[in-house]
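Protein Record: Sequence and Backbone Structure Tokens
======================================================

Structure line: whole-number tokens from a learned vocabulary of local backbone shapes, matched to residues.

Purpose: to set a sequence beside its fold so the mapping can be learned.

___
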Amino acid sequence: MNHVIQAVLRSWSIPPAATLVLVLTALTYLRGAWLLRRAGYPYLPAWRIGSFALGLFTLWFALASPLDTFSPFVLTAHMLQHMALMMVAPPLILLGEPLIPIVRGMPRFAAREFAGPFLNWPLAARIGLALTNPVTALVLMGVVMFAWHVPGPYELALRSSAWHNTEHACFFFTSIIFWWPVVQPWPSHPQWPRWAMVPYLVIADLQNTVLSAILVFSDKILYPSYAAGPSLFGFTPQEDQAAAGAIMWVVGSVAFIVPAILIAVQCLSRQRAEYVAPSPPQPEPAIAGPFPSPGTQRTRLSSLFGARASSRSFEFASFLALFVLLAVGFAVFSRNSSDDDDQVLRLAQPSGSFAIAIYGPAGEMPAGPASFAVLVQDRSTHEILLDSDVQLFLRNANGTDGASGPVHALRDDENKLLATADLDIDVPGSRVVEINVHRGSESAVLKMPVEVIKADSAVTLPWSDIVILAFAGLLCVTYFWRHRSRASARLVAPMA
């Protein structure tokens, strides 16, 4: 196998925090499915459990595989990643009917105090009904798809890992909402007749076709980052853009049209069966929305959550210990994860027999350690030269030696096509990063001037800590609000 292809296949960018969340979700679901079967509710066949697991794996693969690593370099890889997040993972997850198994698989304290009351909250049912209304879901899907493929927001996602993750979250959760009326996971109830899902999917396919046609037939490069970057796999940015549009066109059409055909066949078969042998009218299900209603379903949900008596204090202590353990793990994994998404192309220039591209921090460069990545290609053939030796020097603007160098660049932990090195840019001012490339008897030198600004001394709270504190605060407010209402009711009852 070609050494470049081997390097590509080894270029994984596994996100520790997201992996932890997905593994925890899978374990919770599997525990809930097992408890439901043990309690006499074997409504989850093995194929649904497998579908949910495959959906989570597809989601993880989209975030961790070389598709994510090369999404800033190759538009085709980025488009394949989007298709996995929008067209493959969401319907597979919903086919696993995850709502009740996940709630049942939670710790008893969490299910009783938070998940159960939320599912029985009338406002949550109304919000769920509004979001999963086919009109709302279709409009949301179209708006999110077109908005994130506008050059401005798309370029923002390429320059910032935070915005890149936001883009992925928008795609995934909007797609969950879109596919909800199509899959209609239990215990939700359809708001439209089943046959209406056929035009619903056809309209979504038309939206997808319009956007993909823009990419395929546009005579200009829509995203400048791909136009300025090096050609990694032998095709031009224009060809890359057309291929990405074709992938969106084909994969999207298959994802929309195949379910539409299956639903149409299902509806026609049902009508024929009813015509041949009419069945007696069936009572309407008691569930009226995507979440169980607070009335007749309360008793059933209580039985699903389990009725064994246990110590409230032990349940609370167990939940608190588990929450703290997971919060610490999430925070540690988030801080220790290395992410190359914040690096942008700072210079691409031929030098000698090489074509050299340098990637570094986006925006202004504060004083302190900075990571640079170098891609070396043959100038005439654009072949990626993995056996080249790369050294980085930090020099002052007047040409004198700086504080760092020489630093030998090593193959990146994620993108194996890049050679990375860390330079310590100690003080603000004008600096020059010098890149020396050697391969056999050939060598080249490339100089990149940088302006270093004073490092921000303000202490910033990591995003993972903000998420944990906000979630913990929400749980506390929910718990005390519910128990305050109960305490008030107990005080008023004797007076009545």
Residues 237-276 form the longest helix (40 residues). The chain has two domains: 14-306, 341-453. The domain at 341-453 is CATH 2.60.40.1930 (Immunoglobulin-like). Confidence is low (pLDDT under 50) at residues 277-309, 489-496.
